[in-house]
Amino acid sequence: MKRFAALYRELDASTATLDKRAALIAYFRATPPADAAWALWLLSGGKLAGGGSRKIANTRELRDWGVGESGLADWLVDDCHDHVGDLAETLALLLDDPVQSADDVPLSDWIEQRLLPVAGLDVELRRAVVVAAWRTLDFDQRLVFNKLLTGALRVGVSQRLVQQALAESSGVDIALIAQRMLGAWTPSPAFLRDLLSTHALPSDREQPYPFFLASPLETEPEALGDIHDWLVEWKWDGIRLQLIRRAGGVALWSRGEERLDGRFPEIEAAAATLPQGCVIDGELLAWRDGDTPLPFGALQTRIQRRRPGPKTLAQAPVRLQVYDLLELDGVDLRQRPLSERRTLLQRVVEEHADLRIALSPSIRADSWEQAAASRLDARTRGVEGLMLKRLSSPYQAGRRRGDWWKWKIDPLTIDAVLLYAQSGHGRRSTLYTDYTFGVWDGDALVPIAKAYSGLDDREILSLDQWIRANTLQRFGPVRSLPPRHVFELGFEAVNRSARHKSGLAVRFPRILRWRHDKQPPDADSIEQLRALAR
What we know:
Elements: H1 2-13, H2 17-30, H3 33-43, H4 59-70, H5 74-84, H6 87-94, H7 107-115, H8 123-136, H9 139-150, H10 159-170, H11 174-180, H12 189-195, E1 212-213, E2 215-216, E3 230-234, E4 239-246, E5 249-254, H13 265-271, E6 278-286, H14 296-303, H15 310-315, E7 318-328, E8 331-332, H16 338-352, E9 357-359, H17 368-376, E10 385-390, E11 398-399, E12 404-408, E13 412-423, E14 432-441, E15 444-451, H18 457-469, E16 473-475, E17 478-480, E18 486-491, E19 494-496, E20 504-506, E21 510-514, H19 526-531
Helix pairs in contact: 1-2, 1-9, 2-10, 3-12, 5-6, 6-9
């Protein structure tokens, strides 16, 4: 645990990516496989135990145990938490260091032998394990231990940075490491051994490829050069996935690294006639008839249904719009140019001849002005804008700037009033940065969106001070506020929703600007928002 706590301290103290990577390389080279596997799991966003009854401790229990162990009054612990902003750090600060240093227990032993065995058991058994740890760990270890319990191990390290460190320390290609880490895996020395193997493994054939992600286009498209060097497509608003046809079976993998087998049986049935050794990248959309997909809300009705019934299948039929071919006849095509992959994909789709798996059409444009004109038609087609892909580009892993761009349409906007706020996460845990906004429904304000991005540091600090001085009520971590400030919000679409109090759900809301020039009565109404709904 001492080595992992030292790594956490070093990562948290550094803002330089190269320094963080060097710290990770040194850690993985010097750490036993069992601890290294758990460190990889935790730094990649993994949690120790499931939610609900399988948690080791919830935040209320940790707070109460901290009160009892520190001997401080409830209100004082709560006040400290309010100022620090992070429960794990608050408890680490309030508890004393042990008088005498205890023997160092490996990270894997803490997790596998002490914490996981009590997950979901009687509260006193779980409390005994946690309090015993507090009494034996120094501050650095206690902080990391608490963060393992709260699931808030945020330290400014991306999964790709961890993969880069592993690639450099092992000599294994980062693309292969990223592929082997996709989907569900269990941290263990065996997994780490296979992850860093320089030999091809049978399990490699069961995994999807890491997705290639586009970057937002932040300049005029003319800066990209001759439009004839680019493939122009619609930017679909669905679920990005890879369809894998290998070893006689079909697998659907989402970009979120989840297998969707069984949830979209019509796509699996349609894929059964695709050639073996075939991996296709595309977008899953709710689609009934014609040239326009159904709103994303229709697709949402199916996402969590593992075995949809006939009624669900009839109400929200789906189609896979495919736009890249990553493997054919078992041969990895990712390093071949997009123009060649696209030609092969078109042949596969035409020979397949099933409307449930369709080729995403290219958009004919002889100039960027013509492409811009097509982009203006995007919202009426139910898409988010255009994709621009360099025809000579390979299929890379992750978000690599330069070859794939998303040229999204301008967002829909509305002026809304700030109603509630709560503290953020990680480095923003001491500031109120998560906001709830409402619009007018008659004489009342009804919540319509939550947003936490769009303000600069100066605006965040100013608003945080106002929130602390003007709180009306507290509901756990949430503060209700007087209707005083108006903000312009941007979002991609508005859909009807029976699950929301307003009857509407907005897609990807964010703050565009703080409207100091407007008063709450000037904010928009629910009728104006309904008019934007699909």
